[in-house]
Amino acid sequence: MAKRMSSISEPPADAAADEESGSSRATHRERSEEASAISGLVLLLIAMKPSQLAALSLDPEVLHAVVQCQGFTKGARARQLRLIAKLLRQHDHEAIRAAVTHVMRGKGARSQREKTYERWRERLLSGGDAALTEFATQHRDADVQKLRQLIRLANRDPSQGKGKAASRDLLRSVRELGEAAATASGEPDAVDENEDED
Prior knowledge:
Order of helices and strands: HHHHHHHHH
Radius of gyration: 24 Å
Low-confidence stretches: 1-6, 14-23, 190-198
Helix content: over 70%
Structural class: mainly alpha
Number of helices: 9
């Protein structure tokens, strides 16, 4: 992996000439660390979904190169990785890294919330009125009658079509209430993260 990363972001040719002439202030170690950081950023970018890339407001040339690279294999991919690294050196790659971190953090926060919603669904299905009361206390906007009806339907026939549909609708209702609360509290949100509903 180290060999691959170093080949992605070889320092510019003029850096070696600067070093020989003594005009370069960056040490070999600093250039190596920067090359490694850019390599990591390139790999993060090509692993992102189109909606996540769109949220980054990348330079059009960088965005085009990243999207192209996602469709390449082997030799063409290696060349494209080096091109992306070269383009990133011409831009504020630290600002791009901060934007990537923000988008990925939003994805992680959304995933954590999704796990919480699924746990709530299980509690509501198995915990009876006590669980529903606790949920309604935390979510004042909850339609308790609708939730109670969905819980009954889901528990009545959990393996049949109506029961499965009610379970999905229950999760959707819990998610909507949770996302409304998350938005109100200013939590980061994922960019177009499509969660599977059970």
